Structure formats: structure tokens, C-alpha cells
Amino acid sequence: MTTAQLKKTVKKLPRRPGIYLFKDFRNNPLYIGKALDLKNRAGHYLKINDVRLQKMVTTAKKLRHIQTKSDIEALIIESQLIKKFRPRFNIMMRDDKQYFYVGFSNDYFPKLIITHQPTIFNFVGPFTDGNTLKSTLHFLRRIFPYCTCKKPHNNFCLNYHIGKCPGFCCLKQQKWITDFASRLSTGSFNPTIYSKNVAAIRSILTGKKNSVIKNLEKEMARSAKKSDLEKAIELREKLKGLKRVFENAKIIQKSSHTHISIYGYEDKNGKAGTNLIKILGLPKMPIRIEGYDVSNIQGAHATGSMVTFIRGQPDKNFYRKFKIYTKQSPNDTAMLKEVLERRFKHEGWPFPDLILVDGGKGQVNAARATLAALKISIPIIGISKNKHHLGHQLIIPGRKTPLPLTKLSPADRNLLLAIDSEAHRFAIGYYRKLHRKLFK
Fold first, then answer.
1. What is the largest CA-CA distance in the chain?
2. E-strand spans in 60-199?
3. 171, 146 in Cβ contact below 8 A?
4. Rounded to whole angstroms, how far apart are CA atoms 101 and 350?
């Protein structure tokens, strides 16, 4: 597909959510993606630097699209199409481990989890956008409550009190049996409803939303016919909520493709970050970057931190702190190894495009060895400090000498320094908290 052909096609695309498909001469999908704004997203392929994407565009013979009412609907349709066609450039551009899946546990009351390793659970997927998937489940859980408690307990969980959990599903067995027997007559405890909720979510995530809506409408009509108005009203509200989720394109507030963060990182039309791609030899723009630091005094009260920046913005939902148990102290590399091992054993945490560690060659090598042992491939760099303890140079694997930060563009330099500073702040804050607690 020539640039002129692509430009002509892009002009005709709507500024609406949907799916875009690059197809070959046999009409087979080469690449499938979703967009909040089809015109804007497809326009980015006119100015890409990634060699593999350039090859995909030149191989393609046409660009087609499917308009949807919301980003949620686009996410689900994209998932079904990728699963059906397995386009070769989707597979090439994204390691399967990086896709998101919704796993359903084998418990009597199944729990839902977002994971990168679907083989452990009954699952649906793949999904390409973890943030949109989490938002989707967040909204669906209001309509179809389900359990996420890791352990059973004696009393109702917090989610029960705010309407996101049926309540009985996370109680210990004896407690559940007693309460179930005492409240069965009221209908407030009904395992069948829980099963229906989980089945509805699975159906919606596999593209069977209309089937769920029809079933709810039939059930509402039956309840009204039996004069069970309370039940009919409840089902009507479920229907209204479900339709609202899929019809309101603004339900997920997405940031645009132009970002200026409080740290000075600027991403106009996808141009910021191109220096990082070239200098670090990255396969694509590092949208999600994680920063790590450890804090201790002679190994005492050691803590570790993980901070996450997405498109240049800190996302505190993905900040994590670690109380380090490594006894080899003081040994920052061993402590960093422990932090990374624990972090990457969490199945539901999205993987980053780039890892930044606070430290020199020793820390970078330790981080690379840790990920290699876990069979995870993610680019890793380090920031070493000067005598004033200020970020001074980048440690880049494969490069003989460190790269002065002055060689980076101001935007990229500010971003990396901000991530390193934030990781240090978060680690030292947790260290001080533990130290104060011990002192008291």
C-alpha cells in the first residue's frame, strides 16, 4: 500500500471508535487494531519509524474499518477478530505473553482475574489494551457483581457493602451454610444468580452481548407477568446499565495522542521518544516504562520500589513497594533481583516496554540476568549518578561506554530523570515508614 493510497483512505475514516484491518491481496487480515478515533489512529501509520510496521503497511493492499459505539465494544470485537484470524503482524509485533486475558478460576464461586498466562485458568481473550479491559470489568461488575477476594473470611467484604460482590461467595464454608439457611427465604443469597453473573460477563467478553440483552429482556418480561415488580425493576436497571456501557463512547476517558506531563515529557504526534527508539535500539515506542530503586542503610530495613509511567505520565495505580527479605546485605544487586523476581511472578500486572533501574552496570546486569532466568525479554537500562548524586549517564547493554544524558533530547532526558527520581522517592518513603515503625 503506497503512502498516497493510505492517505486517501485515512481521509475517509470517521473520528469514531472502531477496528481497523490492514489486509493483503487475498483479503486476509495482516494486522488488526482498535482505536478510540479511527481517523487519528490510522493517520499515525503515515509517519511511523518502526521497520516492522512499515513492512506491514507496504505489504497491505487495503485498509478496512468497523465503526463501533464505544472503545469497550471495539476492544471486544478486536479480541474476537485476532483470535479468529491470528494476523501474522499482530503475532510478530506483540509477544503472546503481553496480551491480556480474563481468567475464570475453578472455585465453586469463580473469581475473575486479568492475566498474561491464560493456560492456568479457563479464560477469554486475547485483549490488547489492559487499561480498557480493566475499565470494562469495572463497569460490568456494577451490573453483574462477582468476587475477587483472595481468601474466604467470616464477614462480608467491603465490595459487598458497595454492591460489587454478592457477599456469600467469599464467606467461610460454615458461615456461608448458616447464613444461607437463615436467609434463603428472602432470596438475598442465591448461588444461581452468581453463576448467571459470571456467565453474562463471559458472554459479553466473547462478543455475545446481544444474547445477554435478549435473555435479560425475556426474564424481565416473565417477572412483570408474574407481578414480581421488584425483580422486573432490578432487571430493567441491569439492561439500562449494560446498554449505557456500550453506547456511551466517552465512558472511558482516554488521553489523546498529545501529552505534556508535569515532568516536561512531551509527546506531540508521536515524535517524542524517537531518540530513545534509535539510541536504545527498541522495537517500538516505549509507552509503558517501569522504574526500580532499592533503599537501605547497610542492608537494614531494606525496601524496594516500582513506579510506572504511561505515555510520560505517572500512573500510581501501578506503583508497588516491596519489603526486602534478602539477607545478603548490603547488596543492592541481590535486593534488586528479589524485587524483580517478585514483581514478574504477578500474573495480572501488565508488562512494561522498558525497565529503568537506579544504578550502574552491576544493577543493569543483575536485572537482565533475573529476567533471563524468568524467560522474559524486556529492554533494561540504568541511570548512574555523579558525585552530587544526580542522574548523569545511561547504562545501555551492548554499549561499551555510558551515554551522557545530555545526548538525549530534553523531553526524553526529563522523562527518564523523572522516573528515576520518582522511584527513589517512593522507595525512601517506604523505608522511612518502616524505620519509624521500628523506632516507635
1. 80
2. 62-67, 100-104, 112-115, 122-127
3. no
4. 11
Q: Please give the full DSSP string across 255-277, using - where no structure is assigned.
A: --S-EE-TT--EESTT-TTHHHH
Domains of the chain by start residue, with CATH: 3-93 (3.40.1440.10), 100-207 (no CATH), 269-439 (3.30.420.340)
Sign of CA dihedral 136, 260, 290, 77: positive
Identify whether the C-beta of residue 30 lies closer than 8 Å to the C-beta of residue 63: no
Give pLDDT tens digits for 365-420: 999 999 999 999 999 999 988 876 678 899 999 888 999 988 888 778 888 988 98
Point out the least confidently predicted range of 54-58, 199-203, 219-223, 388-392.
Answer: 388-392
| 9 neighbors 66 (Cβ within 8 angstroms) | no
3 phi/psi in degrees, rounded to 5: -60, -40
Please spell the DSSP secondary structure of 18-85, one letter per residue: EEEEEE-TTS-EEEEEEESSHHHHHHGGGS---HHHHHHHHH-SEEEEEE-SSHHHHHHHHHHHHHHH
Three-class DSSP category at 192: helix
DSSP codes of every residue in 371-405: HHHTT----EEEEEE-TTS-EEEEE-TT-SSPEEG
The cell for 127 is 485483549
Q: In DSSP terms, which residues pair with 145 in a beta bridge?
A: none
Other CB atoms within 10 Å distance of the CB of residue 23: 20
Q: Are 264 and 411 in contact, with CB atoms under 8 Å apart? A: yes
d(CA 136, CA 134): 5
- Main-chain dihedrals φ then ψ at residue 366, nearest 5 degrees: -65, -40
| Long-range residue pairs from 245-248, CB within 8 A, at least 24 positions apart, any chain | 245/70, 245/72, 245/136, 245/139, 245/140, 245/143, 246/69, 246/70, 246/72, 246/73, 246/209, 247/69, 247/70, 248/69, 248/70
Rounded CA gap, 191 and 169, in Å?
8
Name the percent of the chain in helix, strand, coil, to the closest 5: 50, 20, 35
Using DSSP's 3-state secondary structure scheme, residue 320 falls into strand
**Nearest 5 degrees, angle CA 71-CA 76-CA 80?**
145
Contact 102, 123 (CB under 8 A): yes
Question: Does 96 or 229 have the greater pLDDT score?
Answer: 229
